[in-house]
From TrEMBL:
Protein name as annotated: tRNA (guanine-N(7)-)-methyltransferase
Organism, as annotated: Nocardioides alpinus
Functional description taken from the UniProt entry: Catalyzes the formation of N(7)-methylguanine at position 46 (m7G46) in tRNA.
Pathway the protein contributes to: tRNA modification; N(7)-methylguanine-tRNA biosynthesis
E.C. no: 2.1.1.33
A cellular component term, taken from the record's GO annotations: tRNA methyltransferase complex
Residues annotated to bind S-adenosyl-L-methionine: 56, 81, 108, 131
Amino acid sequence: MREVLSYSRRGSRFTPRQAEAWAAHQADWVIPDEAVDRPDFSLAERFGREAPLVVEIGSGIGEATAVLAAARPDHNVLALEVWLPGVADSLWRVAEAGADNVRFCSVDAVWSLEHLIAPASLTELWTFFPDPWRKTKHHKRRLVNATNAALASSRLVPGGAWRLATDWADYADQMRDVLDAEPTLEGGPVERWDERPVTRFERKGLDVGRDIADFRYCRSEA
């Protein structure tokens, strides 16, 4: 049976600026896809230290990644993004921000949560403007579903937060319904997280009159 993915691969051609950033930083900050299959793979080794871990699913072009990671130099930030030009864009953004505590990985986020992230090891999980898969027949490809919510929650430390945002009203409804139903999570809609910068995707939504929904759910302490 064909695997149902929450993303689609897009083009991989780099602009000159992206190519320059890739050449300068890929070796240090991008985890090769094949590396995660090695029996001795270690995230701590990739970061060069042990530190509290944050994962961002779908870092896009790194607008939020750079700002939020730079504000958390004592954390390791793993950014999961399958679009390589987006990763290349992110590299120069995190470099400009001085956020050398970020590592990028282009392996499927659900697989990565299951195989690379230990249970109860994340202080925060960020999912900002995931692909809404607007057609009803494609809703099954949305990242936020009951199975993935249970997996994500299991990776959070007790009290750890999953922060989400979307500009699609029906996806916001789905997020709330799914996460409210996950027994290990507590939370709901919140005011816009003021630390999160306004990204290109958010601006596009605002420009066409869509409301932005922010959520914060925490792993139960019990």
